[in-house]
UniProtKB/TrEMBL annotation:
InterPro entries: Aminotrans_II_pyridoxalP_BS, Aminotransferase_I/II_large, ArAT, HisP_aminotrans, HistidinolP_aminotransfase, PyrdxlP-dep_Trfase, PyrdxlP-dep_Trfase_major, PyrdxlP-dep_Trfase_small. The keyword Transcription does not apply. It comes from Nocardia vermiculata. It is an enzyme of class 2 (transferase). Gene3D superfamilies: Aspartate Aminotransferase, domain 1, Type I PLP-dependent aspartate aminotransferase-like (Major domain). Its cofactor is pyridoxal 5'-phosphate. This is Aromatic amino acid aminotransferase. The modification N6-(pyridoxal phosphate)lysine is found at residue 219. Belongs to the class-II pyridoxal-phosphate-dependent aminotransferase family. The lineage of its organism: Bacteria, Bacillati, Actinomycetota, Actinomycetes, Mycobacteriales. Pfam families: Aminotran_1_2 (PF00155). Residues 25-345 form the Aminotransferase class I/classII large domain. It comes from the Bacteria.
């Protein structure tokens, strides 16, 4: 007789370790290729002496540093074990039955349907438009009296597309104010939209108690291995998120490293200029070879290769570059170091690859 586990978990794929092979270039996880700055490594090393002690469960110093950085109150900020934990916690604070709906564009961040199902709620997926961008009008129209939570991933993972400030404000104006809207800005630091249309969710969300913004230290700040993300929003939402937080899940090293990253943010954010330049170079080279590549505002590019996506991913891996295929939708390729990107471009733009994959 086997142990009784929720039967619905059978439809969630078991965790499979990410592929890696010796010598291969990994452009599959949107990580930063830069290691921690010396000041960040030093803060981590010093903190290891205190690892016999529990971390501050409320991440007080980090919350205070972030509140100051964003010009909000400490009560507006909560830390999560990566912002993916906050995605799950947002479902937990908004949904309590299968009638409750969580709405998001598709394709988008693969965690949304999983955390929705784990939270016993129901996913409502609104297809992206023909430009691989969130169809905000269709999303607003899909809100029902069962909708509890809306995720808007901007820039969108995995397509890289983004909406500007005006479009987001129009969207938020169309959403009833009892529906929580999470603006997932994991790639915010790679956006290069004109100042007037720059979609800073923290500014846009001010005075909107149903809007919560998710940011992370995993991407531009280069701390994917330590797990720290945060939410900025109305104190009522933040208090609820603190209630469902897994105790002590944001560890000591993550807290001090995140503070050190914030202190070194000018240097870290400067790095994003190199990534953005590489991203644009990759897009131009792929487009010149005949690929369709939507404009990206993140640290990756999207190749909508449809049914050929898995084959393209396998062929790229064979050429020594790990990328991320998504079913029959497309392939996401992270912008890495110039020499890594060159290796990918050499594969993708080789005549035999183009002949096989560019229709
Ligand atoms: C990477 C990512 C996150 C969060 O990552 P954490 O490492 O959990 O902070 C959140 N949302 C999207 C869309 C992402 O791509």
């Amino acid at each position: 007789m086997s142990a009784r586990i929720r039967p619905d978990l059978e439809s969630i794929p078991a965790y499979a370790p990410g592929r890696s092979s010796p010598g291969a270039v990994k452009l599959a996880s949107n990580e930063s290729t830069f290691g921690p700055l010396p000041s960040v490594a030093k803060a981590i090393a010093e903190e290891t002496e205190l690892l016999n002690r529990y971390p501050d469960n409320g991440s007080g110093e980090l919350r205070a540093a972030l509140a100051q950085f964003h010009g909000v109150e400490i009560a507006n900020v909560v830390i999560g074990c990566g912002s993916v934990a906050l995605c799950q916690e947002l479902v937990q604070i908004t949904c309590s039955s299968p009638e409750d709906e969580v709405l998001f564009g598709w394709r988008s961040f693969e965690a949304y349907p999983i955390v929705t199902q784990i939270g016993h709620a129901t996913s409502v997926q609104v297809p992206l438009d023909a430009e691989y961008t969130h169809d905000l009008d269709a999303m607003a129209a899909a809100v029902t009296d069962r909708t509890r939570l809306v995720f808007v991933c901007n820039p969108n993972n995995p397509t890289g597309t983004a909406h500007g400030r005006g479009a987001l404000i129009r969207f938020l104006d169309a959403i009833p104010d009892h529906v929580v809207v999470a603006l997932d800005e994991a790639y915010y630091e790679y956006l290069r939209l004109p100042e007037a249309d720059h979609p800073n969710g923290i500014e846009i969300g001010r005075g909107r108690p149903n809007v919560v913004v998710l940011r992370t230290f995993s991407k531009a700040y280069g701390l994917a291995g330590l797990r720290a993300g945060y939410a900025v929003g109305d104190p009522e939402l933040i208090t609820a998120l603190l209630k469902v937080h897994i105790p002590f899940s944001v560890n000591r090293l993550a807290q001090v490293a995140a503070i050190a990253c914030l202190q070194a943010r000018h240097e870290l954010l400067e790095r994003t200029d190199h990534v953005v330049a590489e991203r644009d170079r990759m897009r131009a080279a792929l487009a010149a070879a005949g690929y369709r590549v939507p404009p990206s505002h993140a640290n990756f590019v999207w190749l909508p290769l449809g049914a050929a996506s898995a084959d393209f991913g396998a062929a790229s891996a064979e050429a020594g570059v790990l990328v991320r295929p998504y079913g029959t939708d497309g392939v996401r390729v992270t912008a890495g170091d110039p020499h890594e990107n060159d290796r990918f471009l050499a594969f993708a733009t080789a005549p035999e690859t183009v002949a096989r994959f560019v229709g």
